[in-house]
């Protein structure tokens, strides 16, 4: 009589559960490889958000994208930046490592109360998207003159 032993790996079951939940929520699954754990994340460009007296400035790093691959819109006081970076792999090339992300992305930002959601402009140059959101005139600080009587 032969007995087969099966090694139980609780982490494998956790990974399977995580992958099922990820696919349910539309996220990319975690992929475990023998020598290295790698995660396929949803790609989202990095941004800086800067404020001055007149406006908010959002800078997004979008290397290798063109203007036609990017959309900026405002809806219900939420600013959306979306687009897609397509992979340009060639059949005769062998990739040893791919760490940059490709595919569609969406970033959203709630506009502050003092932002004029109708005064939004966008400029794209050298792989950087700059979105300017002007502040409303009522929200800008005003100097009050003191009268001497």
Protein architecture, described:
The chain has 149 residues and is mainly β. The chain is built from one helix and nine strands. It has one helix at residues 10-24, and strands spanning 30-32, 37-39, 47-51, 55-61, 70-75, 78-85, 103-110, 115-125, 128-135. β1 (30-32) and β2 form a beta hairpin. The longest helix has 15 residues, at 10-24. It starts with 9 loop residues before the first helix and ends in a 14-residue tail after the last strand.
Order of helices and strands: HEEEEEEEEE
Strand order of the largest sheet: 3-4-9-8
Which spans of ≥5 residues are poorly predicted at pLDDT below 50? Answer: 32-41
The chain-level structural class is: mainly beta
Largest sheet: 4 strands, antiparallel
Radius of gyration: 24 Å
- Characterize the quaternary organization of these chains: single chain
Overall helicity: 10-25%
Q: Outline, from the CA principal axes?
A: elongated
The overall strand count is 9
Percent of sequence in beta strands: 35-45%
Q: Tell me the span between the first and last alpha carbons.
A: 110 Å
Question: Would you tell me the overall average pLDDT?
Answer: 81
Q: Enumerate how many helices there are, as a single number.
A: 1
Q: Would you summarize the structure shown here?
A:
By secondary structure, the protein is mainly β. It contains 1 helix and 9 strands.
Outline the secondary-structure elements.
Blueprint: H1 10-24, E1 30-32, E2 37-39, E3 47-51, E4 55-61, E5 70-75, E6 78-85, E7 103-110, E8 115-125, E9 128-135
Antiparallel strand pairs: 1-2, 3-4, 4-9, 5-6, 6-7, 8-9
């Amino acid at each position: 009589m032969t007995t087969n032993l099966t090694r139980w790996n609780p982490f494998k079951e956790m990974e399977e559960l995580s992958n099922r939940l990820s696919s349910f929520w539309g996220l990319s699954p975690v992929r475990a490889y023998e020598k290295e754990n790698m995660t396929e994340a949803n790609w989202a460009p990095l941004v800086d958000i800067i404020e001055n007296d007149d406006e908010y400035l959002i800078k997004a790093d979008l290397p290798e994208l063109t203007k036609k691959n990017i959309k900026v819109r405002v809806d219900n006081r939420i600013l959306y930046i979306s687009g897609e970076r397509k992979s340009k792999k060639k059949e005769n090339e062998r990739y040893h490592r791919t760490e940059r992300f490709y595919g569609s992305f969406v970033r959203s930002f709630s506009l502050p109360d003092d932002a004029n959601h109708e005064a939004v402009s966008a400029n794209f140059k050298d792989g950087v998207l700059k979105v300017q959101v002007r502040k409303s005139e009522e929200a800008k600080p005003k100097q009050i003159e003191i009268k001497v009587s």
